[in-house]
Structures are given as C-alpha cells and as structure tokens.
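Re: Re: ligand-bound prediction request (bumping)

Still looking for help on this. To restate: I need the protein modeled with FE2/S2 (inorganic) cluster bound, output as structure tokens. Inputs repeated here so nobody has to scroll up.
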Amino acid sequence: MNAVTHALSIEVNGRPIEAEVEPRQSLADFLREDLLLTGTHLGCEHGVCGACTVLVDGAPARSCIAFPVMLEGSKITTIEGLIDDPVMVELRAAFTREHALQCGFCTPGMLVMARDIVLRRPGLDAAAIRHELAGNLCRCTGYAGIVSAIQQVAAARAQEAPVVTRGALAPPPSYASPLTLPVAPSRAVAPAMAISPAVIAPVDDSEAAPPVPELLRNPVEITEEFDVAAPRATVWALFQDPARVIACLPGAQLTEPSDGNMIRARMVVKLGPMQAAFGGLGVIVADPAAWSGTIHGRGVDEKSATRVQARLVYRLEEQGENLTRVRVEVAYVLQGPLAQMSRGAIARDLAARLTATFAANLDRALKGGEIAAEAAPLDAGGLFLAMLKGWLARLFGRGGA
Ligand code: FES
Ligand code: FES
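Reply:
Sorry for the wait, this slipped through. Here it is.
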C-alpha cells in the first residue's frame, strides 16, 4: 500500500523547499535523506544526545523528534547553513585551536548548540557552559576541549547584548514573562510552584528548619505572565491559600498542610518517556505592600536522584477593575540525570505549558469551579502532541489551532 504523503512548504538554509513528506518522517531523516544535508547527525534518535540539533526558526531543536509535517512555513537552519555565520566562524576556529573534537560525530550538534549558548549568554563561565551543554553528549568524552573552545568565544563576546530566539518549538509568545504571587503580611503563597518543577522543592526531612535561601549558580531563568479576569484582591485572596494554588498546578499536590510560611509538596513532570516526581520543601517570603513574594525551594526526584534548587518571584498587577496580570520569574538549577530538562527549548516549553494550564485552572477556581485534587502531570512531550493535533485539525478542517 502506498504511503500517505502531505505537501510541505518549508525553508531550509534560506532556500524555499516544496516537498511531499510522510507524517512519520522525522526532520532529521528529511534533511539527511531527502535534502542530502548529512551534516546533521543521528545518535540516539530519542531526543537525548543532541547530535541532531538544528535551528528551527532560530532556536535549537532536536531534529530526530521533530516532524516536517508540523513545521509548515518554518525556517530550518542546519550546520551547512551556518558556514558563513560570523559566530560559527569563531566557534570553528576555537574548536580547532582547542582540539575540541575526536571522531567528530557530536560536533555539528555541539556547534549549533554552542552558537546558541554564546549568543544567549555572552561571557558565561565554564561551569555555566557545562550546564548549558548538559543535553549534548560526546561519546569520545572530549568535553574539556569543547568547553574551553566555547568559553573563548563567549569571553570574546562578553560585551555583546544577549540574543534570545524563540523558535517554533518554543512556547507561544503570549506566555512570556514571570509570574508573581501577592502575599499577605509575613505570609507567602505557593503559586510560583506552578511555573516550574524546580519550584517544588525537594522533600528532605533532614532540613527541619526553613533553609536559608541560597544564591542559585548559573540558573535557568524564565519569565511568564498571564491575565486573569478577576479583581486583584480576589486573585490575591486565592493565592493566600497554598492548597488552592497547588491544586491549579498539573501533577502537583501538597504533601502536608501548609502553615503559610512553608510548603511541602510533590510534583510530577513527564518528559517523553521519562517521568520525574519532585518532592521538596519551599519557604515563602511575602511582600504584601508590593503584592509580591518570593518562594525558595529545594527538592529531589528520588528515582533519578535529580536535584532541583529554585527561586520564584511573583507579582500581581492590576490591569483594570476586573483584570489582574500575574507575573512570575523563576530561576532554577537541575543537577543529575534529568538536567537536560534545563535545556532552553525544553525548559521554555515546560514553563509555557505549566503557565497555560495553571492560568486555565486558576480562572476556573476563581469562577468557583472544581479543580481536581491532583491534576494529570504535565507532559513536556505534550508539545509534540499539541502540534500533531493542530496539524490534524488543519488537515481535516475541524477548526483547532
Ligand atoms: Fe536526536 Fe540524539 S539523535 S537527540
Ligand atoms: Fe566523538 Fe564527540 S568527538 S562524539
């Protein structure tokens, strides 16, 4: 039986491409097999090793788990398309100087990711580079040279302004700033936890007393915001009840009643085939005068031993008599096997999905609707499903995205 194919209009390395593709064909296979752009390598084919990294609308994405049928109209840039890119020219020279490759299999993905890193975070140090590179594996283990090369280019760009690109695989632009929670006098709330798994601090009962907030080292920083159709005082009142706030977070639940100053909670997050259940402790510090507060949290996923440290700053802004903007700024550090969840596109996708779901649940709660005690866990892989659904809806004309 003949395979069903679909017409695709896409741009690759500045060249318009019209093609017929099967829905199941990965972007990596399309680039390598159909366009003969074999600079994009395939390692794990599961979105883990980073060898297949390309740019989708300017942002790094794993081409082994992206599908051309969902990228209609997108601009794809492969390693071949960056041959004359000035930053890539610097990186290639630095990789050569520092002997930053052995077999070279990981190198295209490393270079594409390295370019994104030095553009986003010019001047960053070696530790931060290692953190940013956590999702790119070198089977030759040549990390010392790779990090050194990237650091040289980053240092040379230290005075440059950061360049951040949100690609098609990144969260929708409508959700792009931090969320903040208003806090009652000397009390804080838990809404921040809605934004990131890092916010749900780890459950470590050895820390009987609230931990002193620590300065996060090289954190992932994400800002989200959304509007709620309710007066600020009403939203504030809800935020004073950690149980109600936590109930708005997909996959989250309090593990014991909160006294308003501390939160013990658990949150499940799925990332494709992986699932993490972060349990931990959060300390709330409120600034009622500013309708804002801060939550410091630490936690661990006991199964993978991945540890998380997070800080969430929230603020409620009055936009009108019946409209409140919730802004949240989250900074977090992941250490351990699931550190790849810190990678830019994945972290932004998680943040956008958490925010969207939290905002919808919050709206429902403010209207008196019931929120399940523990909503289904967030699935970062849902990005793929959402895109697939949107594509199917368009294909069969049933509305949808
Ligand atoms: Fe795509 Fe490994 S081949 S991440
Ligand atoms: Fe061989 Fe990285 S240089 S996999």
